[in-house]
Amino acid sequence: MSLYKPKNSPYYQFDFELGGHRFSGTTKCTSRREAEAVERTERERAKRRVADLRNTSIRLDLDSVIDRFWIESGQHFSGAGDTWRDLGRLIDFFGATRLITEIRDDDIAKLVAWRRGHRIIRSKKTKLEDCPLVSNGTVNLTTALLRMLFNRAKRNWGVRFQYEPQWQNHMLPQPQERVRELVGDEGERLEAATREDLRPFFDFLTVSGLRKKEGYTLRWLEVNWSSGQIVKLGKKGNRVVVPITSTIRSILEPLQGHHPEFVFTFCAQSTQHGRIRGQRYPLHRSNVNGMWRRLRKRAGIKDFRIHDLRHDFATKLLRSTRNLKLVQKALNHRDITSTLRYAHVLDEEVADAMEEFAQERMAKRNQHAESRNNSQSANRKRA
Q: Do residues 61 and 99 touch, judged by C-beta distance below 8 A?
């Protein structure tokens, strides 16, 4: 019997085999008629699942797909820790046994709604309701990660999706990232307020244009002195290349010997949390954020994130070179549309060019008018 009611449960259970696979579970129905309807739905779902499994040689349950993705790609991302947590969230939401081929548009809509309800917990002392909700960009990162699973399954593993979600319909609107640069004496104030052991790290971000995480995770293995390049994996696993200029070399060379693996370190200010005062330890996300908040406060600078050092680098480089393609390459942008956010720097140049064009046009018009008047005057004299 494929449909039955256990002694200690008010709900009917289903249990059947199809294509050599066993399917069982609760219908959550107390009426047999309603339970039979649920069972028919489960049988149809089971047929599709068996068909999907026959059409591919790999396991399609989400747990197996995520494991393979992690081994082949995810673990090599610059933000591998964040990727691992987001993959875990997908398991939490869909369940480990859910087939990736069963995920539809409606499931993505529910995932987005679920993720939008999450909050940013910065301190255990703060009440949950007082913690801010995650941003639309953070929600989009979770959706984009699931899309990466789909793309890898299609392109690398030969999986066919009969009903692939319309991803763009589920991406939440994001405000255009603001561009903030250091103005006036802000740069000098930041430099004066920076601790000596942290100065190389912040100087490096200022002259390399790298993102915060790309900076504090920099390893000596990624610094190739002979080729004159820093090569590492950055955002979304993209290859990031930074030339070792004479300025960058002068920052990095004195740091050799501080740590066998990581380039940037800090000196412990006290003996606590397993650290010994005066000894060096690698930078990591939490202490970089804390150090930056204290540095910015000492410098008296408001509304300037550590990521804005990258914006400062880009705007000043574009203002100096007037070359948008060069800035694109320096920032390791794959698409120049990402670099166009800095195009406002060229507004003054555009205005100057427009004015020069207008002046030339007006001069030509005056020249033609003068020539025409001279010709008319000559004709009158001859007459």
A: yes
Taking alpha carbons only, the member of 47, 150, 137, 51 closest to residue 94 is 150
Q: What is the pTM of this model?
A: 0.62
pLDDT at 380: 67
How many alpha carbons fall within 13 Å on the CB side of residue 226?
Answer: 1
**Residue 23's pLDDT is what?**
80
- Rounded-to-integer distance, Cα 334 and Cα 352, Å: 30
Assign 12 to helix, strand or coil: coil
The H-or-E segment that residue 348 falls in is helix 347-382
pLDDT at residue 257 in the model: 94
To which residue do tokens 């900076």 refer? Answer: 215
Which residue type is seen at 176? Answer: Q
Q: Which residues contact 139 (CB under 8 A, 6 or more apart)?
A: 112, 115, 116, 172
Domain boundary assignment for the chain? 3-54, 62-170, 186-342
Count Cα neighbours of 84 within 13 Å in the Cβ-side half-sphere. 7
In angstroms, the CA 135 to CA 5 distance is 45
SS3 assignment for 165-197: CCHHHHCCCCCCCCCCCCCCCHHHHHHHHCCCC
Domain 186-342 has CATH 1.10.443.10: yes
What gap in Å lies between CA 358 and CA 235, rounded to an integer?
Answer: 44
